[in-house]
């Protein structure tokens, strides 16, 4: 009868401009799909060149090399007898489009340009591409000679069309179009399209995965149909981690789920589905059928090919499954760990160095590296040859097999406790014990000699010696002396990162890891060019609250008992003198606000788009049980003063793993001035007027 169709989708760890590696991974996904009987294979958005090419999309080289890769795919026997759907940029009539190129047996069937471009948050597609605004319209696209020589075609259809095979009808969406209020699958479904495809470049955000899953399932719950989603995975060259989650859904229920986090460069999902399930589901939805009778039809590209076999009555089809979501603590353990692994192997460095202070933030960073080591050992145990080859290159040993996370950690991870006269023995002991439990190569050093030398130069030149407040100094002196200690730690971190392996007789250098959390960055509670300045920061997009929960998760799941004392200790920078041998300085007292309050300010400022007055109006209701309007006004004013005074620090913020939608990352996500009028006179006057009225 031809009712059971076998289709494949995938999650590929593509890398921007790595045309050779991207081609190899595409070929592997096609081979796996064909070996499991698939007749259609879907890949991620812009998979040929890699999604994150950014301004390289302006270059004609990017278009040229994409077509060269496409030619390799077209002429290969590996792509025969399977419809292949790949993503690449295409220039049509001097306009650049983000496209799907769908081909079969050396013939291009359709080039489908993206209709709705992603242009919020981390996405800037309108900078490089133009949306296709001609609904249900197809034009002729003149193929470049390099493709004509392979296909024998001079022109192919280009535009908003669907494919009509012998047994069904397929329509494409591209990433953002699923999220748009007028998604193409709505009208396509009414016009008889039974299989919807979506090639995505969707990145990880904490607690976001369920949104994507719900959108896919709801796409076919109302209208019936099969929905196939492919996504990029991994770090393709910047702050984002694309989190896979390839999936296949039928009539509102998931039938195949891919992993959200893994070290597999190629992951393929194959499912066999019954077209009659779609037809019978739609048949009883009268409202859908009434709307379908009035729909404006799509142009159909006829394809002399079937996704099913003629004799398939006995072929088993996939049944619905329950999607398993990770907890936020699991997401923190896995997402940044996979991102770190991609960064490490692709940067060709020999490991990481982390200034480990014995506090929550640097300890959480250390735990993420330890989780990465766990993932590597698990992948090798499961037979992942790519991970084994990368691990051997990193440790410079062709016979090495990572089996124990602690032993692997010792080889690739150096932690360093940088004590000063203001450091307590407690934090020193905590850092040492944690290093022992995760297995890192640990260094203890003292920075007092360097601090005294720097301050001594200043005193010799000026004839003045700055003092801490507790010794009679001013707040300016106090802050400057704290900053000297912090900045010397940054200099020493880079020195030890470059030469520690040299002293151990090992080749290579180390990447320096930062450990400032998203809340501290938002408030500016960090020294510019201190240990927050590093090569990369796996926790820079994660809140203090989430990090504390993650630490608890590590205690329970990795048996890191050293974290218990770290959890119970009040957060402190340890930059001011001790009092009777004990820490007198705490982060929340220094900041004038709690970390819990900071998270609320951050979400209101960025996600709710609240300025000072709107934030005050929202908080007088949120906090009406605990604060008077005047107290709320004071808190809001203090936050905005501190935020604006310190915003310049965001321009030098270490590249951080993007995990929160209230990240203050100045590079792409949170575009603001860095020179503010910090009095906020007009805004604060509006708040004061409202306080007096209340």
Automatic annotation (TrEMBL):
GO BP, sorted A to Z: 'de novo' NAD+ biosynthetic process from L-tryptophan
Pathway(s) this gene product operates in, as recorded in its UniProt entry: Cofactor biosynthesis; NAD(+) biosynthesis; NAD(+) from deamido-NAD(+) (L-Gln route): step 1/1
E.C. number: 6.3.5.1
GO molecular function: ATP binding; glutaminase activity; NAD+ synthase (glutamine-hydrolyzing) activity
Alphabetical UniProt keywords: ATP-binding, Ligase, NAD, Nucleotide-binding
Listed InterPro entries: C-N_Hydrolase (IPR003010), C-N_Hydrolase_sf (IPR036526), Gln-dep_NAD_synthase (IPR014445), NAD/GMP_synthase (IPR022310), NAD_synthase (IPR003694), Rossmann-like_a/b/a_fold (IPR014729)
CN hydrolase domain residues: 5-275
Superkingdom field: Eukaryota
Cellular component, GO annotation: cytosol
Enzyme class: ligase
Subunit and partners: Homohexamer.
Family: In the C-terminal section; belongs to the NAD synthetase family.
Protein name stated in the entry: Glutamine-dependent NAD(+) synthetase
Species, as recorded: Pygoscelis papua (Gentoo penguin)
């Amino acid at each position: 009868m031809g009712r059971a169709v076998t289709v494949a989708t995938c999650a590929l760890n593509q890398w921007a401009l790595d045309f050779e590696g991207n081609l190899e991974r595409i070929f592997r996904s096609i081979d796996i799909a064909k070996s499991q009987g698939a007749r259609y294979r879907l890949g991620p958005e812009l998979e040929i060149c890699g999604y994150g090419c950014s301004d390289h999309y302006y270059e004609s080289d990017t278009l040229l090399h994409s077509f060269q890769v496409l030619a390799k795919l077209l002429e290969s026997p590996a792509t025969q007898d399977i419809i292949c759907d790949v993503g690449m940029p295409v220039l049509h009539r001097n306009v650049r489009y983000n496209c799907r190129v769908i081909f079969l047996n050396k013939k291009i069937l359709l080039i489908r340009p993206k209709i709705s471009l992603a242009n919020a948050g981390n996405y800037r597609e309108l900078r490089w591409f133009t949306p296709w605004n001609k609904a249900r319209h197809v034009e002729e696209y003149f193929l470049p000679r390099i493709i004509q020589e392979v296909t024998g075609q001079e022109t192919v259809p280009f535009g908003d069309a669907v494919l009509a095979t012998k047994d069904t009808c397929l329509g494409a969406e591209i990433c953002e179009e699923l999220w748009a209020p007028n998604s193409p699958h709505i009208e396509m479904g009414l016009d008889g399209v039974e299989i919807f495809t979506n090639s995505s470049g969707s990145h990880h955000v904490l607690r976001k995965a369920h949104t994507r899953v719900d959108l896919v399932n709801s796409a076919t719950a109302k209208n019936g149909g099969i929905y196939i989603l492919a996504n990029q995975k991994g770090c393709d060259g910047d702050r984002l981690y694309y989190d896979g989650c390839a999936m296949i859904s039928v009539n509102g229920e998931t039938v195949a789920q891919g992993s959200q986090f893994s070290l597999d460069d190629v992951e393929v999902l194959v499912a066999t589905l019954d077209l009659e399930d779609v037809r019978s589901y739609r048949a009883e939805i009268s409202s859908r059928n009434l709307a379908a009778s009035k729909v404006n039809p799509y142009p159909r590209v006829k394809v002399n090919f079937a996704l099913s076999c003629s004799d398939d009555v006995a072929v088993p089809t996939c049944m619905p499954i329950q999607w398993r979501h990770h907890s936020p603590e699991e997401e923190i353990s896995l997402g940044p760990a996979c991102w770190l692994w991609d960064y490490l192997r692709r940067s060709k460095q020999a490991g990481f160095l982390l200034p480990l202070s014995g506090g929550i933030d640097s300890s959480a960073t250390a735990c993420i590296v330890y989780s990465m080591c766990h993932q590597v050992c698990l992948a090798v145990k499961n037979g992942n040859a790519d991970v084994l080859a990368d691990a051997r290159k990193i440790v410079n040993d062709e016979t090495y097999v990572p089996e124990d996370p602690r032993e692997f950690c010792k080889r690739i991870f150096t932690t360093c406790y940088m004590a000063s006269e203001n450091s307590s023995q407690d934090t020193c002991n905590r850092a040492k014990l944690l290093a022992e439990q995760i297995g890192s190569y640990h260094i203890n050093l003292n920075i007092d000699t360097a601090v005294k030398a720097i301050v001594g130069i200043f005193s010799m030149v000026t004839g003045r010696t700055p003092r801490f407040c507790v010794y009679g100094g001013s707040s300016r002196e106090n802050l400057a002396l704290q900053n000297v200690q912090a900045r010397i730690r940054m200099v020493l971190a880079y020195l030890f990162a470059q030469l520690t392996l040299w002293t151990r007789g090992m080749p290579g250098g180390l990447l320096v890891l930062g450990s400032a959390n998203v809340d501290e960055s938002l408030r500016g509670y960090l020294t510019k060019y201190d240990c927050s300045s590093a090569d990369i920061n796996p926790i820079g997009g994660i809140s203090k609250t989430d990090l504390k929960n993650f630490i608890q998760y590590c205690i329970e799941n990795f048996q890191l008992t050293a974290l218990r004392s770290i959890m119970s200790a009040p957060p402190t920078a340890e930059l001011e003198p001790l009092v009777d041998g004990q820490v007198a300085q705490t982060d929340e007292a220094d900041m004038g606000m709690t970390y819990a309050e900071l998270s609320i300010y951050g979400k209101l400022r960025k996600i709710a788009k609240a300025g000072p007055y709107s934030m005050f109006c929202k908080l007088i209701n949120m906090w009406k049980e605990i604060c008077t309007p005047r107290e709320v006004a004071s808190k809001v004013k203090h936050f905005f003063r501190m935020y604006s005074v310190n915003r310049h620090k965001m321009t030098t913020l270490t590249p951080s793993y993007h995990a929160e939608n209230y990240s203050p990352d100045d590079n792409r996500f949170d575009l603001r001035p860095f020179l503010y009028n910090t009095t906020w006179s007009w805004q604060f006057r509006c708040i004061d007027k409202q306080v007096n009225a209340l």
